[in-house]
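User: I'm curious what two different proteins look like when written out as structure tokens. Can you demonstrate?

Assistant: Sure. I'll show them one after the other, since each token string lines up with its own sequence. Here's the first protein:
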Amino acid sequence: MRGLAGALRALVGLFLEDASLTAGIVVCVALAMLVAHRGGIAPPWRGPLLVVGLAIVLLENVRRTARK
């Protein structure tokens, strides 16, 4: 149980301590919503579009953190 609580604290800390990751996620979700509704993206591609965008945000954040 302690391991789960520690992992949960680390996950919450990731979003609270790193404002750029939080901002990137918010921008990615907003952009995906805008493109999906106004861009004429077919419904089966909307989910993968969001996942790819979030993966890019996460990978960029990990790359930046690894350089520190």
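Here's a second, unrelated protein for contrast:
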Amino acid sequence: MVYAIERQDSAILLLFAGYEEQGWKQFRENESEFFQWLARAKDNITVEGEGTIVKNIETGYSSYLQHVVELKSISIGSPRKTATFYHEPFSFFSLSP
């Protein structure tokens, strides 16, 4: 899952560089990859508390996707505003269950 998110971050940088088609293609491919690994994690819960961890990851990823939607709408206006928004702190693990 971490690899897929890293690749999505790279895809966002491609968008900033003007490679919109390639960036969105890479982003969506890795979104699919993330969900495949998330499904495997959900199907393989064996330790107490692991279900809560997986749920927190899922919730965090959903927030991340919403963040990307906001970033897309901001990017239409101002490159400076986009860069500022991109660098705002965001963490899956800062979310409370």
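A detail about the second structure: The first helix runs from residue 2 to 16.
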